[in-house]
């Protein structure tokens, strides 16, 4: 099989199609109800247009974000059981304590596709944990231990540094936390760093099992850090540092959180990033947002690299996913769009 994470199991895909069909039927029914006695459809009022240039946001420092990415990569391989993994967990938790009101490290034990038992750590850092209304910003922080997409087949069982696939999302979250702490929005914010996301079954195993991926988000969705956890919406950042960024409207995101995704892409277009946030529907991707959507029912989108000519991006799951694969300007672009949407929805409270 090529491109494992793009595969999506038939049952869930069928379920999502049914959900989509139900939404279409519901929409058509509502349109029918809005017709007058003369059979003329009432036009719904136009949604207000947000002037994102007037939305004040905190400053996101691209160099700082890149530094957070570099610090993770400098720790080496960060899959469970390695020194780099232990060091990185401590680093993320310590760093987030600088800007967040609470930091919770959630340990869990899980079994990989090959029967190996590993210890993982989800890290949840919160701004204004007392607020009932919340948003969720997430990424995975582990690096993959099998470079099963490398062109050199002798490298297939080698670990990789995961600069873009792993460290870029986590680095972006850390800088987002620093920036947002200086100008808190009028909503509680939970930054969740998922572990054991990228240890799914490698292609050379010659079989495929869906639930071998995203172990940390599966655990957290079933055991959230706060009982009955809910959020207005969530954004997942995965592979958000490549020098040729391209993000499309991924199917699971559109099925569960279409309004948020359209708002993000509309904002990006308004800001001049329509060539990066491409208005194109794309297939379902097995990623952490699936379990947050399915289990917790928090509407969550996935901002994930989607290069048209290769699997996600050129160095995906290869030993060349190092710092050369990360562009600080891309981190800045993704954060700028995210902050504009968040602060247009939840501007800081004025005294």
Number of helices: 8
Between the first and last Cα atoms, what is the distance in angstroms? Answer: 57 Å
The H-level CATH homologous superfamily of the largest domain, spelled out, is: Zn peptidases
pLDDT averaged residue by residue: 89
Rg, please? 20 Å
Q: Please describe the biggest sheet, giving its number of strands, its sense, and whether it closes into a barrel.
A: 6 strands, mixed
Range of helix content: 25-40%
Strand numbers in spatial order across the main sheet: 1-2-4-3-5-8
Structural class estimated from helices and strands: alpha/beta
DSSP summary, beta strand count? 8
Characterization of the model:
- By secondary structure, the chain is α/β, with parallel strands linked by helices.
- The protein folds into 2 domains: 39 residues; 296 residues, Aminopeptidase (3-Layer(aba) Sandwich), CATH 3.40.630.10.
- Helix content is 36%, strand content 16%.
- It is built from 8 helices and 8 strands, in the order αααβββαβαββαβαβα.
- Strands 1-2-4-3-5-8 form a 6-stranded mixed beta sheet, sandwiched between helices. A two-stranded parallel sheet has the order 6-7.
- Helix 6 crosses helix 8.
- The protein is globular and about 60 Å long.
- It starts with 9 loop residues before the first helix and ends in a 6-residue tail after the last helix.
């Amino acid at each position: 099989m090529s491109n494992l994470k793009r595969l999506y199991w038939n049952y869930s895909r069928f379920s999502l199609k049914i959900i989509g069909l139900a939404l279409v039927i519901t929409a058509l029914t509502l349109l029918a109800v809005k017709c007058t006695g003369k059979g003329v459809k009432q036009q719904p009022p136009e949604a207000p247009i947000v002037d994102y240039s007037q939305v004040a946001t905190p400053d996101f420092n691209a160099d700082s974000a890149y530094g957070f990415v570099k610090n993770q990569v400098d720790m080496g391989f960060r899959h469970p059981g390695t020194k780099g993994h232990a060091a990185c967990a401590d680093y993320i938790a310590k760093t987030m304590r600088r800007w967040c009101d609470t930091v919770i490290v959630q340990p869990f034990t899980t079994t990989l596709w090959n029967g190996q038992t590993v210890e993982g750590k989800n890290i949840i850092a919160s701004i204004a944990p007392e607020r009932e209304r919340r948003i969720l910003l997430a990424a995975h922080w582990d690096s993959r231990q099998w470079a099963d997409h490398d062109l050199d087949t002798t490298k297939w069982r080698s670990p990789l540094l995961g600069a873009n696939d792993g460290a870029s999302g986590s680095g972006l979250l850390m800088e987002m936390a620093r920036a947002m702490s200086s100008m808190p929005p009028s909503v509680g914010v939970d930054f969740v760093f998922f572990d054991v996301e990228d240890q799914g079954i490698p292609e050379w195993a010659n079989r495929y099992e869906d639930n071998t991926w995203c172990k940390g988000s599966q655990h957290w969705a079933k055991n959230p850090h706060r009982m009955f956890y809910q959020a207005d919406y969530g954004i997942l950042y995965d592979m958000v540092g490549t020098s040729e960024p391209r993000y499309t409207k991924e199917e699971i995101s559109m099925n569960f959180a279409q309004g948020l995704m359209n708002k993000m892409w509309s904002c990006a277009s308004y800001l001049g990033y329509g060539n990066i946030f491409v208005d194109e529907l794309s297939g379902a991707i097995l990623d952490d947002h699936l379990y947050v959507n399915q289990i917790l029912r928090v509407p969550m989108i996935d901002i994930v690299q989607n290069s048209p000519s290769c699997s996600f991006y050129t160095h995906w799951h290869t030993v060349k996913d190092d710092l050369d694969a990360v562009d600080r300007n891309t981190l800045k672009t993704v954060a700028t769009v995210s902050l504009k949407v968040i602060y247009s929805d939840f501007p800081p409270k004025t005294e």
